[in-house]
Amino acid sequence: MIQPSRDSGAAAAAISRSPRSAILRVSASLGGLALVLIAAAIFTPLFYSYANLVLVAQSVGVIGIVTIGQTFPLLVGGIDLSVGAVSGLTMVVIAVVSGGSNDHLLVAILIALALGIGVGLANAVLVTRRNTPPFVATFATFILVEGALLAWTQGTPSGEIPGALSPWGAGTLVGIPVPLFVFLALLAVCAVGLGRTTYGRRVYATGSNPIAARMTGIPVRVVITSTYVICAMCAVIVGILNSGYIGYVDNQLVNTINLNCIAAALIGGTTFIGGEGGVVQSALGVLVLAALLSFMLLLNTGIAGQLILEGGIILAAVWLQSSRQLGFDSLRRMRQCLVSARRPLSGGTPRP
Amino acid sequence: MVRSRIPRVRHMRALRASVLMGALVSVALLGSGWSSAPSTRTASPSDVVSKIAPASAPCSNASKGAGQVAALWKRDEQALGVPVLKPPASSVCYVDTSSYKKRGPYTIAFASQGPTNAWASESDAYVRYVAKQNHVKLLYASANGSGATQVGEIPSLLAQNPQLLMVQPLSSGVEPGLHRAALRHIPVVVCTGLLTDTNDITATVNRSYALDGTIMAQWVAKKIGGKGQVAMLSGIAGVPTAEYTYQAGLAVFKHFPGIKIVTHQYTNWSPSQAKTVAASMLVEYPNIKAIWSDSASNDEGVIAAYTAAHKAIPPLTGDSPNLLLKLAKQYHVQFAVSAYPPEQCGEALAVAVKILEGKSVPNQIPVNSAVYTNKQLAKYYRPSCSVNLYVPSLLPLSILRQLKLCP
Lengths: 352, 407
Known about the structure:
CATH class of the largest domain in chain B: Alpha Beta
Shape of chain B: globular
Structural class of chain A: mainly alpha
Number of domains of chain A: 1
CATH architecture of the largest domain in chain B: 3-Layer(aba) Sandwich
Largest sheet of chain A: 2 strands, antiparallel
Distance between the termini of chain B: 81 Å
Strand content of chain B: 15-25%
CATH superfamily of the largest domain in chain B: Response regulator
Order of helices and strands of chain A: HHHHHHHEEHHHHHHH
Distance between the termini of chain A: 11 Å
CATH topology of chain A: ABC transporter involved in vitamin B12 uptake, BtuC
Number of domains of chain B: 2
Radius of gyration of chain B: 23 Å
CATH class of chain A: Mainly Alpha
Helix content of chain A: over 70%
Number of strands of chain A: 2
Oligomer: heterodimer
Radius of gyration of chain A: 22 Å
Largest sheet of chain B: 6 strands, parallel
Largest interface: A-B, 63 and 64 residues
Strand order of the largest sheet of chain B: 4-3-5-6-7-14
């Protein structure tokens, strides 16, 4: 079998990091965002009012944080369905442990973080040690956490959310919602971490081919574990911010968090196969989803119209991403063939 | 050059996987509007109240039943100071339960929706309390908010040979199970829900959705003088508790040409979602004069949105948890509430005991609940108790303490 030369491999690597490939990677979500913005300008001009943009920014912040967290397991070929439960657990812990008092807030947050990390570790153990499919493992954890919450609170979580959280969840800084700042800070840290560090390369390598990654000495289990822990910590942050947003424990929020973060990541181009996508792409997906949700509210189409349009746009985004991926890979293979054909063989098996 | 098919196969699989997962997420999003998700109220798809068929057991004295329904409507409308309307036609009659008569103590099976929130926990606690008062052996099964789970639990309950089956339905999927109970001559009582096929049901105990929706809309219309913009907020799309209440309210507003319903939104009974929806409403409709809401969960979000925007809170409607009263007192909110009491299934258990004693009971028992406005806030608000407590509560203080709802 003919081995590709190093030069063709370098050429392939150069192709994947070129500005053109970067544009291709984000084209679908940018196109979707442009579509929503144009439609909003035509049908709901109030979308661009300051008050509404603040609402969109709030949604971007909250959905964005949990989507960044969800991106990490997706990059290693997994998924985390327990994020909603961890957020709900955080809200309950804060309400019950603090009892509505700012004095005990720090303790409550630390306990919530510890429990969240525990859930992340539990997911990781199931996935890495027991080889449980991530969908099954994290769904089981979701049910377990929900059950534990019910047993603890009997459906009636006592206590209120301390007032000190309100500026974080519902406050603004220079007119911009605080959750957006938290999201941007997290995005910057994670983008640098995934794009410019050894850890980031290990995450992508693990997601692309875990067997090959293990053979090159990458501690695959550690890398996968870290992704689930990061995801759980992001869910805890969202729980803290949501607590401050409404001021009370909101049981119903659990259901929407899971779906929103997966949808946003998919729209942005972070796929389920692992090794593809990233936090920046997911962030674009968050922008599209948040803009879409706001647009649908203002459009007043009714619930049926809202759901059909949201589902349709997700399907379209996934289809576009996959088409783009196929087209990009075809292009890459063509370039590899051309480069290989121009250079003489260096070693390897002689032609028969 | 040898061409490898592996990358192509891998990417075709990736394409299929991506499309499949995208489809699953989309279906989940689409399905979320029709799911029987747990809430403060059960999800029971059914026909409108006035079209429920009477039970197949001998049923008589319809005029007495209709009179009781009319009296309830009149009482509640007068409580809010709104015009008394003729209630929709109903088929209430008195069921002859002599064939079910047994000697006590009784064994009653209860398929509960499960203690998934404060309302449901109070509901279960009151059922247990009434069971203890009446020396009833309770065979309990919790569906944890899942309609599918509940469907599977009913045969298990029937296998334990109860003398009566009581169901807090989450979906019409329970109807085959009720039919099996009827075939075994086990009487069935339904609470906090409505089912389409009532032939196997001896009695239904439920607060009337039509009554709630109607009187709240009448109060809103009166409050704004029959003119102005009104927003309507409902819980979960497709859930009968939300839909029938909404339809009843809408039917009232149609009689007021000066009232414009500018928007109707669903909030999943989530205060956070309601806050976002209300904030969006403020952008598009800054002149809303009142908000018709089917639940206090919506009202909590509305109050948070309006206070954050430093706008005057419009008159609201909803049900009756302590939290709404606390917020209404703090922010001087005008409201009208029609309580959807968690004690309904406990009342249904008392009806179940009467059935087993052979006493005649109405086939539909519209629940009498507290209906009041902000003027009676002090009478119902319990400042020392949890914001999650639904008031007024019939639970003794000892049980409220066990549930950590009161100190």
